[in-house]
Specification:
This protein has 32 helices and 15 strands. By secondary structure, the chain is α/β, with parallel strands linked by helices. The chain has four domains: 123 residues; 98 residues; 184 residues, 3-Layer(aba) Sandwich (Rossmann fold); 243 residues, 3-Layer(aba) Sandwich (Rossmann fold), CATH 3.40.50. It is found in: Nucleus.
Length: 759
């Protein structure tokens, strides 16, 4: 066996000291012993794992010291003596190291026990316990790996579920709204009950309660009138809830009379089909002892339909009246002209004029009832109430009936005391600001049915901004489009027997279109300066050249801002305006735009109506017209001979040249042979209602009214039956915030009207 082989074998023996002892006693030569000793020392240093570091170092030191001594002695002695010396030295080393070997043996025993424990522990953990632990670890790892996948699957399933639910809800919503638009309330209620929509069910419940109350009041009224046809019908209290909506209208209009031809006293023209339908509805009101509102859009002939009703009552029903027709002062001449044209066989009187003239009419005609129709104004209804209240009127008809929108005003309170069997309101704008106004009209017509404004607004006011207060907090009720549509549908069911409305776009297809434009005008430098001064200081200082004084604090800031937007000359004394005539145009942004616009309109043959809220603005406009040599007419609340002014405007060129009478309110008109009058400037309040001015095809709203329906009424003076041309309405708006605010507020009010009345 070679040295290397022996050495490798000895390296594998864990007992290193025993290996060394064995090598010495086998009588190797010195070279082998020294080599083996070096190998063993190195092996001991590299391989021996003893936990006690002190013992390890001690063994190493003892062995190395012994080998060093052996090498030294080997060099000084002969080879013959080497074996003995070496044996002796090795025995000494072994003897000296015996204690260390015992310690090493103990350490080895401990390490063996530790290895045994490790082996047993390893066997334990590789057994069932380890498998359980590893199973849990594996399961946890699997869960961690599967978690994103599971989440993705759940997310996809949730999205699919939500999408399916959304589609289901949308389908339900569409079915409900479709049934609502088709006025199929039975189907709608069934769908709502299936979906268990509590908010919709609440709305249905409270509006159904109101409908039941209205039905009950109508039935009581009909019973009190001892209507034989109505007494033959079943009582409304015995009807099932779902049938109330079906019988409500038929209950109110239970007596039906078919109108096959126009009244025989209506000889002045042929009614249009939609006017015949309106007459049929008015006759139904009369036959069923109901009052109502004819709310056709302006220009569809409410006056003609009313005259047709009166002709029917006198001719077919043999009802000789008396009939009281209350109209604005500016429309009296129009009513007279329409009566003469359409029903010349009717006897009428125009109750107006001075005190002596009215007394004469009373003595000669009214007291002896030598008339059938009495046409008068709002003012005379109050001033002559002591006389007019003596009569039992068959019909009280109020033109521009929206004047009754405030049930607390004096005119409404006085007119409500007049005795009459029937009442009828004519208005193109039954709702202008709020539901309270609509209720006021209904209360005047049917006080026993619509007797509570509070309950009316509670049931139907929520979609239009009604608030509910809880302590100090005020919350605006937010409603969906469906809820709003539902409330409006129920409101229409309430109004249907009493309100009849058509739009031009629905019935008068041959009427030319009406287009509206907004012309924005910048403020002039002086307007900007004055506007900023009032906004900052609340007053404006304008030097009075003649007296050296200044204007001080302004009372109504909003009104003064509006005046600045119109023209700064409104703040000048009368005598100063004449000195600044050449500055009329450049001082106002609106006048600058108007000047360019009018020249173009005149060159293309248009005739123009100009409406303004302020008579002083009309003064400045007239000065401007004279400066530009535009022919014009003027109509405001102070104008006399207004009938002649209106007739002059509507005359054709040939007829106008034959007129010799000087008309008050006329501007400078060139001599005979000149073109038709170019401009008619009117006050919005005095000339914006009830007039037929279809000779014009262009309407300019110089300034906007807080009530947008006044502007609508004004613009429809030209857009009405008889108009041959397209009507263009041009609204002048400056960049001043006050005018923008008025315009935006007006759009909100129009939105309420479209929602409630026109929906």
């Amino acid at each position: 066996m070679s040295l290397q082989t022996r050495t490798e074998q000895w390296k594998e023996d864990p007992n290193l000291l025993a290996i060394l002892y064995k090598a010495i006693h086998q009588k190797f030569n010195l070279h082998i012993v020294l080599s083996l000793g070096s190998q063993l020392v190195y092996t001991l240093q590299q391989s021996m794992k003893i936990q006690e570091e002190i013992v390890q170092k001690r063994i190493f030191a003892t062995l190395r010291k012994a080998f060093d001594r052996m090498i030294t002695e080997a060099q000084s002695t002969t080879s013959n003596n080497f074996r003995t010396t070496t044996n002796h030295q090795m025995l000494t080393i072994i003897k000296n190291s015996r204690n260390d070997m015992k310690l090493t043996h103990n350490i080895t025993t401990v390490m063996q026990k530790e290895d045994q424990l490790k082996k047993e522990f390893s066997q334990y953990i590789t057994g069932s316990a380890m498998k359980e632990i590893q199973g849990k670890i594996k399961e946890r790892k699997l869960r961690c790996q599967m978690k994103p996948i599971i989440n993705k699957i759940l997310q996809d399933q949730f999205i699919s579920y939500v999408e399916a639910e959304r589609q289901l809800f949308e389908e339900e919503d569409q079915n409900r709204i479709r049934a609502l638009r088709e006025n199929n309330m039975e189907k709608y209620i069934e769908i709502v009950q299936e979906s268990k929509n509590n908010r919709l069910l609440d709305i249905l419940k409270i509006t159904e309660e109101f409908l039941q109350q209205i039905c009950m009041r109508v039935s009581i009224q009909r019973l009190e009138e001892r209507d034989p046809q109505f007494q033959q019908q079943e009582q409304i209290g015995n009807q099932e809830q779902k049938e109330i909506n079906d019988v409500y209208y038929s209950l109110a209009h239970s007596i039906q009379e078919e109108l096959k031809e126009p009244p025989r006293l209506l000889t002045g023209g042929q009614l249009k089909p939609y006017q015949m339908k309106g007459l049929q509805w008015l006759i139904s009101l009369y036959n069923n002892n109901l009052n109502g509102i004819l709310a056709d859009e302006m220009g569809l002939g409410k006056t003609v339909q009313t005259i047709a009703l009166l002709a029917y009552l006198v001719g077919e029903k043999k009802n000789k009246g008396p009939f009281l027709v209350v109209v604005p002062l500016s429309t009296m001449s129009n009513w007279e002209n329409e009566i003469v044209q359409w029903a010349p066989g009717l006897r009428y009187i125009m109750f107006k004029g001075s005190k002596e003239a009215r007394d004469s009419i009373w003595r000669d005609c009214i007291r002896n009832q030598k008339f059938e129709i009495c046409v008068t104004t709002y003012d005379y209804v109050m001033r002559e109430k002591q006389k007019l209240m003596r009569l039992d009127w068959q019909f009280i008809i109020v033109d521009e009936g929206h004047r009754l929108k405030n049930n607390e005003c004096k005119f409404v309170q006085v007119l409500s005391k007049y005795r009459s069997k029937h009442r009828l309101l004519l208005t193109g704008t039954p709702l202008q600001n709020s539901l309270h106004e609509l209720w006021s009209l209904l209360n005047f017509l049917l006080p026993s049915i619509f007797n509570s404004c509070e309950s009316f607004e509670t049931w139907f006011g929520s979609p239009f901004g009604k608030t509910f207060k809880d302590g100090k907090n005020t919350e605006v009720l937010q409603v969906t489009e469906e809820e709003k549509l539902l409330v409006i549908n129920r409101l229409h069911q309430v109004l249907r027997p009493f309100l009849f409305r058509r739009l031009k776009s629905e019935v008068e297809l041959e009427l030319p279109s009406k287009k509206e434009f907004i012309l924005y005008c910048g403020l002039s430098l002086i307007q900007i300066k004055m506007y900023e001064t009032i906004q900052k200081e609340g007053r404006i200082m304008i030097e009075n050249i003649k007296q050296g004084k200044y204007q001080g604090q302004l009372l109504n800031r909003a009104m003064q801002l509006r005046k600045i937007c119109n023209h700064p000359f409104l703040f000048l004394p009368e005598w100063e305006k004449e000195q600044w005539t050449d500055s009329i145009i450049k001082s106002s942004g609106k006048f600058q735009a108007l000047d360019k616009l009018l020249f173009k309109l005149k060159a293309t043959g248009h005739r123009v109506l100009i409406f303004s809220q302020m008579t002083h603005v009309m003064d400045i406009l007239c000065s401007y017209f004279e400066m530009r040599k535009f022919s014009f007419l003027r109509l405001d609340g102070q104008s006399k001979n207004r009938e002649d002014i209106i007739k002059r405007w509507n005359l054709k060129k040939e007829e106008e040249q034959k007129m010799e009478k000087d008309v008050d309110g006329e501007g400078k008109v060139e001599s005979e042979g000149q073109e038709e009058i170019f401009i008619f400037v009117l006050s919005t309040r005095a000339g914006g209602q009830g007039l037929n001015l279809q000779a014009a095809d262009t309407v300019i709203l110089f300034d906007s009214d807080w009530n947008p329906f006044m502007d609508m009424q004004a613009s429809d003076r030209a857009h009405r039956i008889g108009q041959q041309n397209e009507v263009r309405v041009i609204r002048l708006l400056t960049t001043g915030p006050i005018e923008q605010r008025i315009y935006e507020r007006g759009k909100e009010k129009i939105g309420i009207d479209k929602t409630v009345i026109q929906a």
